[in-house]
Write the structure tokens for this entry.
Amino acid sequence: MRLSQVIAERPNKTIYRDGDYVIKLMDEKYTAANVLNEALNHAIVYETGFKVPRFHEVVKLEGRWAIVMDYIEGRTLDSIMLDDPANIDSYMERFVDLQIKMHGYKAESLRHHTDKMHSKIRETSFDATAKYELHSRLDGLPKNDKLCHGDYTTGNVIITSEDEAYVIDWSHATQGNGSADAARTYLRYMLAKKEDWAEIYLKKYCKKSDTARQYVEKWMAIVAASQSVKRKPEEQEFLLRWANIVEYS
């Protein structure tokens, strides 16, 4: 495996291309368990038949763990939309259609979203009362077993020259409620200060999935609390406000 052609850099990981393969090289903070769990998620999703790059192996390179999968030639939907803002509406429609298609798949071996969110709430810096309210709210929300990405953004969708769409980066994948996945996508756009994209996205998701916006919004406090665990200073004020705007019942 050659680590020469960098195609993307993200916090704590670097993505390389080596011929027909992509090598996602993690930094030293990633344990074997972290990397094997992400690889397992990817393999499980691949085996559902949903269109994702084929998983190959987990290896250790230069003393760091790496995941190897197929290289998909194409552009991210995010970059396409930024280059063609006049057609954002139609691109976002395709993006939502792909997410709804994804939610039609089952992956029973994945961790359940509710269990993951309870774990994240316990990791927050909130006081005991706030944590209790969030745990109670989460327990009161409907459970489901839909395939959920957990970080579904246009940056994680690759469009090939044949106009095929592949979804990448399954480290946060779970089985759960599709509206929770939608709430996460909406939050990611808000954090990126793409409020117009966030609104276009949510309106289309609710219309196409026949879901009331208020139902998706019930998940907002939960996903904000989960995101706050990353403790990014620039996000904390926004997330703390979101984690408290939902009325608990």
